[in-house]
Design a protein that fits this description.
Protein name: UPF0225 protein F8O01_12490
Oligomer: single chain
Organism: Pseudoclavibacter chungangensis
Family: Belongs to the UPF0225 family.
CATH class: Alpha Beta
Largest sheet: 4 strands, antiparallel
Number of helices: 3
InterPro entries: NTF2-like_dom_sf, YchJ-like, YchJ-like_M
């Protein structure tokens, strides 16, 4: 899978409004860890946008991480909307984030609506799993 780099001064794909170099970029590069479950969710979405499989695997809890992860090259991620959060703050050990991720592929426009679960262990947040919503 080829990654599609974002310039540090480009607007971050996660929708925060910040520049990639001060938003998700340092997390992808391993210079810092996500402080909250929402921040990890946003950085994982951006990793899908740029095709950073390594980051997605590193931030997936070992108990639920798939053996292989292949990203569809025909998918173009368009927007992330955070709908709800439960806990997941810098002093919590668990959190949930409900989101909608809009993408386009050869068959048209689609929406991934999920309520994701995260855990914080050894001061690092990990994605555990999620329930797809309709």
């Amino acid at each position: 899978m080829t990654t599609h780099a974002l310039a540090d001064e480009a607007r971050c794909a996660c929708g925060s409004g910040d520049e990639y170099g001060s938003c998700c970029g340092p997390l992808h590069a391993g210079r810092r860890a996500a402080a909250t479950a929402v921040q990890l969710m946003r950085s994982r979405y951006t990793a899908f946008v740029v095709g950073d499989v390594g980051y997605l695997r590193r931030t997936w809890h070992p108990r639920t991480r798939p053996g292989a992860l292949e990203l569809g090259s025909a998918i173009r991620w368009l927007r992330l909307d955070i709908l709800d959060t439960v806990a997941g703050g810098p002093f919590d050990n668990r959190g949930e984030v409900e989101f909608r991720a809009i993408h386009r592929d050869g068959d048209g426009r689609h929406v991934l609506h999920e309520r994701s679960r995260f855990v914080r262990e050894n001061r690092r947040w990990s994605y555990v799993d999620g329930d797809i919503r309709s």
